[in-house]
Amino acid sequence: MPAARAPPVSLASATDWNPERKHRFKRRPRGMVGLPHPHPHVVVLALALLLIRATTAMTSPPAAAAAATDDDGDGSHALLALLQRVQAEAERVTPPDVFDPKRYVDLPLLTGDLRAAEAALPRPAASLAEMEAYLARFFGEAGSDLVAADPRDFHADPPGFLPRVESREARAWALEVHALWKLLARRVAPDVAAHPERHTLLPLPGAVVIPGARFREVYYWDTYWVIRGLLVSKMYDTAKEVTLNLVYLVEKYGFVLNGARSYYTNRSEPPLLSSMILDIYKATGDLDFVRRTFSSLLKEHRFWMSEVHNVVIMDKHGQVHNLCRYQAMWNKPRPESATIDVHLASKLTSAAAKEKLYHQVASTAESGCDFSSRWMRNSPDMTTLATTFIIPVDLNTFIFKMERDIAFFAKLIGENATSDKFLEASKARHIAIDSILWNSEMEQWLDYWIPTDGNSEGVYQWKPDSHNRNIFASNFIPLWLNAHNSEPVQFADEAKSVRVMRSLQRSGLLRAAGIATSLSNTSQQWDFPNGWPPVQHLIAEGLLNSGSEEAKKFAEDIATRWVRTNYVAYKSTDAMHEKYDVEICGKSGGGGEYSRQTGFGWSNGVVLSFLEEFGWPQDKEIGCS
Ligand SMILES: OC[C@H]1O[C@H](O[C@H]2O[C@H](CO)[C@@H](O)[C@H](O)[C@H]2O)[C@H](O)[C@@H](O)[C@@H]1O
After folding, report:
1. What does pTM read for this prediction?
2. 578 counts as catalytic
3. What is the residue extent of each domain of the chain?
4. Is 583 an annotated catalytic residue?
5. Can you tell me the distance from the alpha carbon of 230 to that of 70, in angstroms, rounded to the nearest whole number?
6. Beta-carbon-side half-sphere exposure of residue 113 (alpha carbons within 13 Å)
């Protein structure tokens, strides 16, 4: 085996992360070696990881992390424990088609008397009526601890709105979608900060835009497309305020949480904070906003570079690379879906196997794509989820982008040395993505399976047969980097982008109403036949900016299919949907562990963004063709 060479980049002074030290963890006690000065919250999580690793094999999940992350020191863990018992009791008496486990962990306690609420919980409840009476006595409605916000920069028909949308029908609808920001804007009620022990909702300093329906709180990666839409709607102040909430979370927890609930503190979501800040800067030129948020981006980068997420892998030429994976710091049922997780784990016998499964389930939620055959060793068997053993194409795309954005911002604010270091880091990641994830035969980037044999502490040796050769829309997401390249050399040059486009066209993913998430119908929501707004947008924007006229036309074709299906579904249901069935124009998506959701933050953002980018001519049909 060729000698391992250290990656060419050192970010030590910029981020306190030194890739050379990364390799030392082979000989050092296990722990957060890649993160010498992390945020205190991350330290607690890391210590939890350390504890479990001292006693179990590396393939075991970080069991002690559970104990570390469900107590914020404000008493909200006691409430969450009670709410999970409420959830379990409610399941027994609620018809399955209306039972949503998340509702129960979102309930705010009406008074400070948790003990009284505990004592009065009917165990078992005799009926649904008895359970509902109990809930009404002790708890407010789920979502009642958020109050409507009235964004001051909202105008019903903002000047300069969608100048290229000529069709009256399309324009009238776009204005209705734009008006949905008012319905989705919220503020956390003052009681949440005053009495955190009564809420699983976390306090936030500014207004938020929620996805909608059961998703009553702000979500991390959803917010990127919310921001894109708010910028189209000229709501620049709201876009900044929403983003500053996520910055606040980084400052408080060391990373952006999956969502702003105490039960989401054990994981993040696809990291797009730097992209939000970049797009706001491009729209407003507000350099103070960049200055204000910059150090939080460095902090977030440290989180993703820590041992929890970083994987070291040696390519076939002996070159060593750092890439990232998803990994939650949790090995218990997800509180928001505990009944579902417990049921799934009941197929396994040992407590250790259950913990490992819970760890994989939560780690999959960190991917934002929960759930999908993509993360299963043996699809569609959910007990074979193995997300922490996958190097995902899209995650590394987002982190490459983060590094490029940080380099750009650092230059803007005069931190040239930091800029150079992050530029180098992004180049190293570019090389890593090309070496480890690019598949020249299929002309796609492919997720990479790392071994589950307990070697995750060391440097993995790249193997050609470890690519996941199944077709997923995520295989094409690196194209998005075309949209954001400030250098003459594009991430995927024009010729390569065209080859990737042809591969996408041959893949079978493009359907009547958009790009399917995968080709496999598992009944999971991130599989066929669902298409998701962020995925359409990432791929279309990448194609649009590839430099190829043909790819640009293809991007417009994808956008047209997507806009039409959103429009037709809206006309028939009076709502924007979370996801769509790409087989049938105008049909919302289904599957997964919860019912169809409407609102919907990222759907609105993607439609507005497509309409801004491509316009809609007078004579273009907007119904299904
Ligand atoms: O309650 C189940 C899961 O719900 C969320 O995931 C889905 O909705 C999110 C909000 O729109 C979205 O960010 C994610 O991509 C969806 O899969 C939540 O994020 C999960 O953590 C949660 O377990």
Report:
1. 0.90
2. yes
3. 471-625
4. no
5. 33
6. 8
3-state secondary structure of 261: strand
Q: What does the pLDDT look like over 317-334, one tens digit per residue?
A: 999 999 999 999 999 999
**Which one of 217, 261, 370 would you pick to mutate in the ligand 1 pocket, going by the greatest count of ligand atoms within 8 A of its CB?**
370
Q: What pLDDT, on a 0 to 100 scale, did the predictor assign at position 482?
A: 85
Q: What does the pLDDT look like over 242-270, one tens digit per residue? A: 999 999 999 999 999 999 999 999 999 99
C-alpha–C-alpha distance, residues 5 and 322, integer Å: 12
| Alpha carbons 34 and 12: distance in angstroms, whole number | 10
pLDDT in tens, 33-69: 222 344 555 555 544 444 434 323 333 333 333 333 4
Nearest atom (ligand 1) to Cα of 259: 19
Q: Which atom of ligand 1 is nearest to the CA of 597?
A: 11
**Residue in 209, 214, 219 to alter for ligand 1 test, most ligand atoms within 8 A of Cβ:** 219
The mean of the pLDDT values for the chain is 89
Please list every protein residue whose CB sits less than 6 Å from any atom of ligand 1.
102, 211, 215, 219, 221-222, 258-259, 269, 334, 336-337, 365, 368, 370
Which of these, 559, 539, 429, lies nearest to 480 by C-alpha position?
A: 539
Radius of gyration of the chain (CA): 23
Residue 410, C-beta contacts closer than 8 angstroms, at least 6 positions apart: 14, 294, 416, 418, 419, 422
Q: Is the pLDDT of residue 456 over 70?
A: no
